[in-house]
Design a protein that fits this description.
Layout: E1 8-12, E2 22-23, E3 25-31, E4 42-48, E5 59-65, E6 81-84, E7 96-98, H1 105-117, E8 122-125, H2 146-159, E9 164-167, H3 183-188, E10 205-209, E11 212-216, E12 241-246, E13 263-268, E14 296-297, H4 326-344, H5 353-377, H6 381-402, H7 411-431, H8 436-456, H9 461-491, H10 502-509, H11 512-516
Parallel strand pairs: 7-8, 8-9
Antiparallel strand pairs: 1-2, 1-5, 3-4, 5-6, 10-11, 12-13, 13-14
């Protein structure tokens, strides 16, 4: 794997508006040759980035970059991740928790179960990956540091979105990294530093989520079964304490409704420090008698619990990409036009007109209908309306022609076709500012409907011939337009001229922000049509 330079992170409320680069910290960890030379020495690099002044209850998008790779580039948007900060006030939520996970196919399956719960956070209660299977905390333990890297890769599917909060069990320390055994943990994790000894015992800390306080205790404070910890860790042993959640009442508020804990007060299990609070088997020493801080304050960078969540902070609009259906619509329109022109120009005997009309009903109409439906799903109301209207017009005229004497004008069809003309012209006019090529196609179609309608009204065969040749022109025009759109969709850029303007041009040449920002005002998102 090639080395990277200057790692950083970008973050923002939307994927197309990420922040400036925030430099990351690289923590280097060296593992010596272990297990009698069976495990080679290894160099590990863990990258950390601190984010400040995040708003509560807000979903953020983030991307990790380095020299030569920018997550804000539109080509790299697929690499972005998301996370949601804790709410400012009490609300229902789900969290998951387990301990003693390790690395295996089964533990990877556990991670997928976590994702299925959509938790606000996950608690990993010690004995994280079993890189040290014996867990005695000695430098002679069988230890494979590569297991940590395997575990972090295994966990990434969850931790890239869900806060993965850990504490340390006896299988999580490492006597090779620092005198107190926590050098490896300090390199791999950045945990809240509000515990009694953040450096010497990083696994003891607390955090709040809404009005719930979570306290992480480190079982390695002074256990007799791990002699390696009896020296350097003992002065920092503070996990033999209880943390009392105290609330600031607002009038008649109760702890469940006042918005969350305001401070966490640590109280010694044995304030006098005289008798041991350990079990009869002597697992633990008595806790140190103090001094203890009176209050562990929360950070003040975010607004208080009384600030309401905004609608845009908790709303997510999901869009599903589709292949462009316009080539199908153009091709179906062109084929149908030429088929009907063959009847109007006398290229096909009148006796075979029924067969051609059935082909229009079976082949052209369904394709036009499918294309129009998917154009609407692709958020183009004008083009979708036009294609569906034409599909219905093809179906209506074909069915009525099947029931009419061949070669003779039908006044009922004249009324229908002439009534269509102003509506098709209105759609053409709406397309002029952005899609002039489509506007011309619709104008030609309206002209053909008008000429055919006048013929059906009994004004003479000359108008039928003119309508037939107009249909041929529509077929050629639709062939070019469909081909140009097909190539454009495959290349993701305009190759054959389509004369896009305004919003249509920005849709193919603009960035993601220009595509998605108006989505909040579109049908299906706004409250009323």
């Amino acid at each position: 794997m090639a080395a990277v330079k200057r790692p950083y992170i970008r973050i923002g409320n939307t994927p197309w508006a990420l922040s400036r680069t925030i430099d990351a910290e690289v923590r280097h960890l060296t593992t010596p040759m272990l297990n009698g030379g069976k495990i080679a020495a290894a160099e590990h690099y863990y990258v950390h980035a601190a984010l400040e002044r995040l708003r509560p209850g807000t979903t953020y998008y983030y991307g990790v970059g380095h020299d030569g790779f920018d997550p804000a580039d539109a080509r790299n948007l697929g690499t972005l991740g998301t996370f949601t900060t804790a709410p400012a006030r009490a609300e229902s939520f789900t969290f998951t928790a387990f301990g003693d996970q390790g690395v295996s196919y089964h533990t990877h399956g556990n991670d997928q179960l976590i994702l299925g719960q959509n938790p606000a956070f996950h608690l990993h209660a010690g004995d994280i990956c079993y890189a040290d299977p014996s867990g005695s905390g000695q430098s002679t333990d069988t230890y494979d540091a590569r297991t940590w890297d395997q575990f972090l890769a295994q966990t990434e599917t969850v931790s890239m979105t869900v806060p993965w909060m850990v504490t340390t069990g006896n299988h999580g320390t490492g006597a090779w990294y620092s005198p107190n055994g926590y050098g490896g943990q300090n390199a791999r994790w950045t945990l809240p530093d509000n515990g009694p000894a953040p450096v010497h015992q990083p696994g003891a800390y607390f955090f709040t989520h809404g009005n719930v306080g979570v306290i992480a205790l480190d079982t390695n404070d002074v256990p007799y079964e791990i002699p390696a910890n009896s020296g350097p860790v003992r002065p920092y042993g503070r996990t033999g304490v209880l943390l009392q959640l105290s609330y600031q009442s607002r009038g008649g508020d109760t702890p469940s409704s006042c918005g969350g804990p305001k401070d966490l007060r640590p109280l010694p299990l044995n304030p006098a420090g005289g008798e041991s609070t350990a079990s009869r088997t002597g697992t633990r020493d008595a806790p140190q008698p103090g001094p203890y801080p009176a209050t562990m304050p929360q950070t003040s960078d975010t607004p208080g619990p009384s600030e309401p969540l905004t609608t845009d902070a908790v709303t997510r609009i999901v869009l599903r990409p589709v292949a462009s259906p316009l080539p199908l619509g153009f091709f179906a329109l062109g084929i149908g036009s030429v088929v009907l022109s063959s009847l109007q120009l006398g290229w096909v005997p009148t006796g075979q007109s029924e067969m051609l009309l059935l082909l229009v009903l079976i082949f052209v109409v369904p394709l036009q209908f499918v294309a129009g439906l998917f154009v609407l799903l692709a958020r183009d109301a004008g083009a979708g309306t036009a294609l569906l209207l034409l599909a219905a017009a093809w179906a209506g005229t074909s069915v009525t022609s099947l029931d009419s004497p061949p070669g003779r004008p039908v006044v009922a069809q004249a009324v229908f076709l002439l009534a269509l003309v102003p509506f098709v012209l209105a759609l053409a006019g709406a397309a002029v500012p952005s899609k002039p090529l489509f506007a011309v196609l619709l104008t030609l179609t309206a002209l053909r409907f008008g000429l055919t309608g006048l013929y059906e009204a009994g004004t003479g065969n000359a108008l039928q011939v003119a309508a037939g040749w107009t249909g041929v022109v529509i077929g050629v025009y639709a062939l070019y337009g469909g081909l140009a759109l097909l190539v454009e969709d495959g290349k993701q850029r305009t190759v054959l001229p389509l004369f896009r303007r305004g919003a249509a041009r920005r849709s193919i040449e603009g960035d993601l922000r220009e595509q998605l920002t108006p989505a909040q005002q579109e049908a299906g998102v706004r409250h009323q049509l």
